[in-house]
Amino acid sequence: MFRRRKGSDAAVAETFTTPSITEGAAEYVGACLEPRFTALPEPRSWREPSIRRAVDALNANQYIEAAVESKRVTRKFPDLHLGYVWLSEALTATGQIDRARIVLRQGLQKARSTHSICRSLGETELRAGNLEGAAYWWAQGLHARERLQPDDIETESYLYLSAVANSLTGLGDIAMALQRRADASRGGMVRLDPSESARLRVLIMDMPPASKEALAEVLRGVSERYLQSQIEAARERDERQTQESRAFYLREHQRKLDRKKRRKTGERPPAS
User: Fold this and answer.
1) Which residues, at least 6 apart from 204, have a Cβ–Cβ distance to it below 8 Å?
2) Which residues on adjacent β-strands are paired with residue 39?
3) Contact between residue 39 and residue 148 where contact means Cβ atoms under 8 Å apart
4) First-to-final CA distance of the chain
5) Taking a C-beta distance cutoff of 8 angstroms, is the pair 112, 81 a contact?
6) Are 18 and 137 in contact (CB under 8 A)?
7) What is the pLDDT of residues 13-30, one digit of tens each?
8) What whole-number distance in Å separates Cα of residue 272 and Cα of residue 263?
9) How far is CA 24 from the centre of its chain?
10) Least crowded by CB within 10 Å, which of 187, 215, 218, 231?
């Protein structure tokens, strides 16, 4: 179905390597926190008739047809990210993960907007059981997405990284800030499929402590760059709610003491 050009495929794979924690934790964290890819607004929509046939076939689980239609999209609009994303999903659904990686990396070379491609590369790595590779691509997707604020509603990279943060110790505030960032972009609550979150948790449980700490460093770096105002606002809100709750408790406690005292003395309650 697809003609493979081994030389060009190898060149693409070499251009966009996925860093590994085992090759150096500091180098991995640095790679995750360094934005690498372009982010330009994309005016074209998947709803256009010449484009949407591919996603309609994909949603109907007609993967061969989806692949053929997605290839047509990439030929007609080589700088449009959608064709590469949909083609990779069709390939992944038929077990062709390595080919899906190559297609997505080709998209990184050509597409105007890359955050969805980075998110899809993360999903591909997740399905291959490579969580540290997935986290790298989601971080790159988040970097690219942040450059488009507020022009795009792509939020999956935020949600995946939020799920990673939720599965690590002491990063609950970062997880919530990432979720709030996604909610603000979409105008409502959007969450990952529970099976995806479960897959993440299992992979993180099996990671050595040094790898977990490297992921935590990535998330702290993302937080410092993009989320500090939200985290500080949430902490202030929580502190305000705590103070209000404490004041309410003290008022109620004092009322109980006053009522008890009046019962003993026979004193009438003050007029309201």
Assistant:
1) 131, 164, 167, 168, 212, 215
2) 113
3) yes
4) 83
5) yes
6) yes
7) 556 789 999 999 999 999
8) 18
9) 24
10) 187
- Judged by phi (left if over 0) then psi (alpha if -120 to 50, else beta), residue 3 lies in beta
Give which of 129, 117, 125 is closest to 203, Cα–Cα: 129
pLDDT of res. 254 = 74
Global pTM?
0.80
Residues in the chain: 272
SS3 labels along the chain: CCCCCHHHHHHHHHHCCCCCHHHCHHHHHHHHHCCCCCECCCCCCCCCHHHHHHHHHHHCCCHHHHHHHHHHHHHHCCCCHHHHHHHHHHHHHCCCHHHHHHHHHHHHHHCCECHHHHHHHHHHHHHCCCHHHHHHHHHHHHHHHHCCCCCCCCCHHHHHHHHHHHCCCCCHHHHHHHHHHHHHHHCCCCCCCHHHHHHHHHHHHCCCHHHHHHHHHHHHHHHHHHHHHHHHHHHHHHHHHHHHHHHHHHHHHHHHHHHHHHHHHCCCCCCC
- Which tokens is 135 given? 């986290």
pLDDT of residue 3: 42
Strand partners of residue 113: 39
List pLDDT tens digits, range 154-180: 789 999 999 999 999 999 999 999 998
Integer Cα distance of 204 and 222 in angstroms:
19
Segments of the chain with pLDDT less than 70: 1-15, 149-153, 187-188, 230-244, 247, 269-272
**Residue 15: which of 95, 134, 104 has the closest Cα?**
104
